[in-house]
């Protein structure tokens, strides 16, 4: 109340207060909230604080989707939250939160934060804003109303009270969810300036939820898109992976393109989308990954990166061979060169390199279909990923469908059928085998040219 009075005196615009919707208006039942989240909100309430399930979980429940995780928001300060629970950890600097554990489960508890600061707030140390309005630190606590106002989209600013089974809706998010509209809270241009990643989030949510972006929200994106260049590469990488592994990557990439957001975020995305051959392969990769995710299978960043960088790697490999390098060193040099080049732009973690290289190196080995090699390949720990990659290449016009088909049949065939499928050893292969020193490593021979 007092805050609203102050706001009024200062001439600040505030939301009129939340619309509080009962069960029959939103349909989210307490039982849909996992016990760890319920215990967390209950304990906070019993300690005298308010606590709500918030953000993506409420949105997804409202839309009849299964939430990925359940976050809790409260008016208790991080240290106060920590005191309520036996097993809780304070984490984060830019954005302090508390992890509350129940068994192996974990709930993220966030303290209500104040509405994102305007540039005038520069003097306040805990809110740091760059000259162009980009928000650099955001640790000012506030009321629930302020917390709702600093969230990005109206459908992401819903608070669910499991005790009363009520949804507190500060920005008509429930109505927007019904109309399938993604709408930015507040002035879109200002909110995108504060955090340009919100532009990518807009594309991601629109694709994932099959919503359309409200025209006023969409309007400033084209002009502000270059601001993404200022975002740390690691944050862009995480955001891109969320989009590419969301189960709606095909639509997501189309959405990025429609908004002019594909420049600069994934430098290779530019190149891929402008080249017909690569585009077919990318769409095969995205389609396949989407299918996998939607069927509850995992999709790894390493696999996606292997897809995105495949053509660059292959071209580099070919160039290396043209300079007289033999196939294998040419391959390893090409893999290293391509990964290093992308690392500068994308900052993807080195831990993916091993898997990416294995997936690539396996592609050459799929060509070898005589003797003992196909059997050894079946035992390779990355066979599955390599084979999935081969299928995508075949679908994207980069490998012979007959080859992919051969491996599809070979891996499930009985011993006799497998033996009958083997191709005769080529003269070259026979010679090489005879010449190999005893005990020499056989498996990583990469002599065969790729299609
Ligand atoms: P997902 O299902 O992809 O996790 P989510 O909505 O839960 O979707 P998170 O990134 O987990 O997204 O963020 C949780 C909540 O925090 C969001 O629902 C939103 O309210 C708020 N939020 C997250 N990122 C931002 C941002 N960049 N600007 C403003 N609010 C944000
Ligand atoms: Mg989330």
Which descriptors would you attach to this protein?
cca-adding enzyme, domain 2, about 50% helix, about 450 residues, binds magnesium ion, binds adenosine-5'-triphosphate, elongated, disordered C terminus, about 10% strand, two-stranded antiparallel ribbon, single chain, 3 domains, Beta Polymerase, domain 2, alpha+beta, 8-stranded mixed β-sheet
CATH superfamily of the largest domain: Beta Polymerase, domain 2
C-alpha end-to-end distance: 71 Å
Count of DSSP-assigned helices: 23
Strand tally: 12
| CATH architecture group name of the largest domain | 2-Layer Sandwich
Q: Ions, cofactors, ligands: which are bound?
A: adenosine-5'-triphosphate, magnesium ion
Largest sheet: 8 strands, mixed
Shape call: elongated
* CATH topology title of the largest domain: Beta Polymerase, domain 2
- Please state the CA-atom Rg, rounded to the nearest Å: 27 Å
Low-confidence stretches: 118-123, 430-451
Number of domains: 3
> Strand percentage, roughly?
5-15%
CATH class of the largest domain: Alpha Beta
């Amino acid at each position: 109340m007092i805050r609203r009075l102050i706001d009024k005196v200062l001439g600040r615009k505030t939301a009129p207060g939340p619309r509080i919707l009962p069960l029959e208006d939103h349909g989210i039942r307490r039982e849909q909230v996992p016990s760890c989240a319920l215990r967390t909100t209950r304990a906070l309430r019993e300690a005298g604080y308010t606590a709500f399930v918030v953000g993506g979980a409420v949105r997804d429940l409202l839309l009849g989707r299964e939430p990925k995780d359940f976050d809790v928001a409260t008016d208790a300060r991080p240290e106060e939250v920590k005191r309520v629970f036996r097993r809780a950890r304070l984490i984060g600097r830019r954005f302090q939160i508390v992890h509350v554990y129940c068994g192996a489960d974990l709930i993220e508890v966030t303290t209500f934060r104040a509405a994102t600061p305007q540039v005038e707030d520069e003097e306040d140390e805990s809110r740091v804003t760059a000259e162009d309005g980009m928000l650099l630190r955001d640790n000012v606590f506030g009321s629930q109303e302020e917390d709702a106002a600093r969230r990005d989209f109206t459908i992401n600013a819903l608070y669910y009270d499991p005790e009363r089974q009520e949804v507190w809706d500060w920005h008509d998010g429930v109505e927007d969810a019904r109309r399938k509209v993604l709408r930015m809270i507040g002035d879109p241009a200002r909110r995108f300036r504060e955090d340009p990643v919100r532009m990518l989030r807009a594309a991601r949510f629109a694709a994932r939820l099959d919503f359309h972006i409200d025209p006023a929200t969409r309007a400033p994106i084209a002009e502000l898109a270059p601001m993404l260049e200022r975002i740390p590469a690691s944050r862009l990488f995480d955001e891109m992976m969320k989009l590419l592994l969301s189960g709606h990557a095909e639509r997501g990439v189309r959405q990025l393109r429609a908004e002019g957001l594909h420049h600069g975020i994934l430098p290779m995305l530019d190149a891929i989308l402008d080249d017909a051959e690569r585009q077919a392969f990318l769409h095969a990769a995205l389609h396949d990954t989407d299918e996998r995710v939607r069927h509850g299978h995992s999709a790894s960043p390493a696999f996606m990166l292997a897809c995105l960088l495949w053509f660059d790697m292959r071209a580099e490999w070919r160039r290396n061979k043209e300079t007289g390098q033999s196939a294998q060193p040419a391959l390893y040099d090409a893999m290293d060169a391509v990964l290093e080049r992308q690392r500068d732009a994308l900052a993807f973690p080195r831990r993916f390199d091993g898997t990416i290289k294995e997936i690539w190196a396996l592609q050459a080995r799929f060509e070898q279909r005589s003797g003992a090699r196909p059997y050894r390949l079946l035992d390779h720990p990355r066979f599955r990923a390599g084979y999935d990659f081969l299928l995508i290449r075949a679908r994207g016009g980069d490998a012979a469908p007959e080859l992919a088909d051969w491996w599809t049949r070979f891996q499930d065939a009985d011993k006799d059928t497998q033996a009958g499928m083997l191709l005769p050893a080529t003269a070259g292969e026979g010679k090489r085998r005879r010449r190999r020193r005893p005990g020499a490593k056989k498996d990583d021979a990469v002599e065969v040219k790729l299609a």
